[in-house]
Amino acid sequence: MLNGLYVATSGLVAQESRVNTISNNLANINTTGFKRDRPVFSMYMPGDKRWPQSIIKSTVYNKSINSVVKLDDIYSDFSSGSLRETENKLDVALKNKDAFFAVETSFGIRFTRDGHFSLNSDGELVTKDGFHVLSSDYQNDPVITIPQVGELFINDSVITIPQDEELFITENGEILLDDLLQNQLYIVEFPEKHNLQKTGRNLYQAVEMLPVASANPMVSQGYLETSNINPVEEMVKMIDALRSFETYQKVIQTLDSVNEIASNQIGRIA
Questions:
Q1: Strand ranges for the chain from DSSP E
Q2: In sequence order, which residues have a C-beta less than 8 Å from that of residue 172 and are 6 or more positions away?
Q3: Cα 102 to Cα 185: distance, rounded to the nearest angstrom
Q4: 152 vs 212: CA distance, rounded Å
Q5: pTM
Q6: CA atoms within 13 A on the CB side of 72
Q7: Which of 22, 32, 66, 194 is most buried, by the most CB atoms less than 10 A from its CB?
Q8: 105-121 tens-digit pLDDT
């Protein structure tokens, strides 16, 4: 009976992982450029070093009572979300689903699909968390600065901003002011996106791979990319995971009751 408890418990843990992943997806429906996550499971069967070539070990019966489910990985679905118009000249979206903006953080360079940018008090282009958006010449001059052409008063502080009609960002990420090239966004692609690791704050870290400059990022100024989460689909999967969780709970309770009867009644000496 203990084998059955192990199998049922592994199923319970698997459904808990599904619930946690789906909950995180639903919590980020309104997060700009967020990519939904999907857990991947596989069957695990403990090996027996005493009889590695045992015929019994490979039978369907043995696999059904000894194999358990394990979480292999949680992968991100990098399909594009829809574009939402904001009319903010510093908001940019990437139509190229393989492209990412590069930003400088306190932990090094990270990458994001969130193009909700603004200017700090020094006129530097930053993310909503204050990280600098990198320029294409980031090795020599990483910070993108927009020259002062106007002033905005917020909380008794003066913040320099460009006039809306004078700032233009091309499809290649070039920043033009009065038709003069000021800088260019550093936009990259990755040969293997599954090696991108989420690090929080809607950022990704490249694991054991280097980015390449995107030849055609297809930047859309005045737009933001929404998350690629389908709320109806996620809710259906949430209901399925919760019902499966309850089923495994009942299985464990049943097996526990059977074990109790076997120990206290059937095994009792008359």
A1: 37-44, 68-76, 83-85, 92-94, 99-105, 108-112, 118-119, 125-126, 132-133, 151-154, 157-160, 167-169, 174-177, 180-184, 187-189, 196-200, 203-206, 212-213, 219-221, 223-225
A2: 184, 216, 217, 219
A3: 8
A4: 37
A5: 0.81
A6: 7
A7: 22
A8: 999 999 999 999 999 98
Which helix (H) or strand (E) segment is 63 a member of? helix 60-66
AA identity, residue 6? Y
Question: Which amino acid belongs to residue 60?
Answer: V
Q: Report residue 114 as tokens.
A: 């969130």
Q: What is the pLDDT of residues 225-255, one digit of tens each?
A: 999 999 999 999 999 999 999 998 998 888 8
How many angstroms separate the CA atoms of 85 and 38, rounded? 28
Report whether pLDDT(18) > 80. Answer: yes
Name the helix (H) or strand (E) containing 191. none
Residue that is written with structure tokens 């000496």 in the block = 269
Neighbours of 141 (CB within 10 A): 12
CA–CA separation, 58 and 63 (whole Å): 7
Beta strands 212-213; 203-206: pairing state:
unpaired
**Quick one: which of 181, 204, 185, 179 has its CA closest to 194?**
204
Separation CA 175–CA 168 (nearest Å):
6
Which token pair is 205?
């870290």
Nearest CA to 255 out of 69, 19, 12, 60 is that of 12
DSSP readout, 197-251? EEEETTEEEE-S---EE-S---EEETEEEPP---HHHHHHHHHHHHHHHHHHHHH
